[in-house]
# Entry
Amino acid sequence: MARLRKKRETTLDDEPLVVAMGEEESSVVRVLRLLRPDGGTIVVTLPNVIGAEEYFDRVRSWFATQSDELALLEVGDPLARSKRELEAFAHESNAAALAPPAKAELRLEVDEWDFPRENARPPVQGTDYPIVSSISRRAISSLVLSASSDLDVFEATERGLMFVHQDTPAVGQVMLRPLGEAQAAIPTHGLLIEQIEEIRRSVPAWSPLDEDTLEIMLSHAANNSPDEDGFWTLYMDQILDARGLIQKSRSGLAKAGYRADDRSEAIKSIARLDSAWVRVYRPDNPGNAETEDFVRVFLIAEVRNRSNRLARIRYRPGTWCDLDDARMRSPRKVLEYDPYREAVEKHLARYFLQRADETDEAGMMVRTVEELCVRGGIAIDRSNPKRARTRLTQALDRLVLDGTIVRWTYADDPKQLPRRGYLERWLGFRIRVVLGSHTWKPHDETLSCGFRPKRVKTAEATR
# Structure
């Protein structure tokens, strides 16, 4: 008999377990649990008789050959695959090859955390999503930008590899510690030189993809209340869907799953965020730097794997983040940009949105070309300055097209540039950028996770 049972916890081991079940304590049975990619667990219960192990081997082989793909009519049911497999296996158990050596029981168990709550909203819903723009958040953006271009700014300390982000009126610091450190770890624990060097070697792996993952996790927490234990549950498919990735499909079938490389990159991104600690202090108050200690970017309570791939995480943002600060909205397109080929667009979009409160009453800010090239990660080739000019223009035009900014114009006349030898003069040119009014909402000027610069009176001041 096959049936569905809800269960809060299921073992992650697919080996048979010997457990006591039934009315009599001497009634010993064998239990095989097979975790399925859709989150269900097929449970096969069999008396501990001769031939039980060989039967379990045949059961494993049968389920291992089942297709990962869903028929079109099955897409709306998150447990469609497990239910189909359970029914098919129960039917084929009458055949000699799958006949059990004794009466067997089949059932489908579901961990209560394995699927989103009925009232839970996706982490990114619609065309935009909430973002946090505190100094701590800006410090992470600066770290990502520097990771690919300037490793010398990362300083080795006894506690970890340190990155400093200079801002106004406070300083943001990000400290990187070993990957996979325990939940109970404290940032005062000293590290060995070998550990610091291993962390330094891992720095170039940081990319705009890590900011995508960070913003999806924060958006999910801002859009939903936590579970009863104070943690949020987020599923790998939700992360990949928020980035606009397309699932594999074949003719006549739908949604066969995301690429293994996309899942692998997301897993590594979560691990990097788990290794990061942040703090903010005011440089005009020396004592503040000693009393403000580092806190985790995220506290990861659980990482759940199914069929050798990440299925979900349970996490909580660190105390650096006040979710009430997530009042600005970023176009979803920012998440959908390719984190490598369109990194410039991601960097500039986040630079503008994180500083939306620095615009004037018309929503305008003014920056020099050099500043925008630095903030966008645009390399300056002095032998071919046209390349940087073309790339900056391309990125700003794309941000207008996708709604991150309303428009941009030169405050200085580009026609005044000579045909040759114009690089230094062009880098000093100013650019006006206008942000849409929908990207900024009033908020407190100070936050529990840092300090917020005051809204400027004029757009002509540059940072």
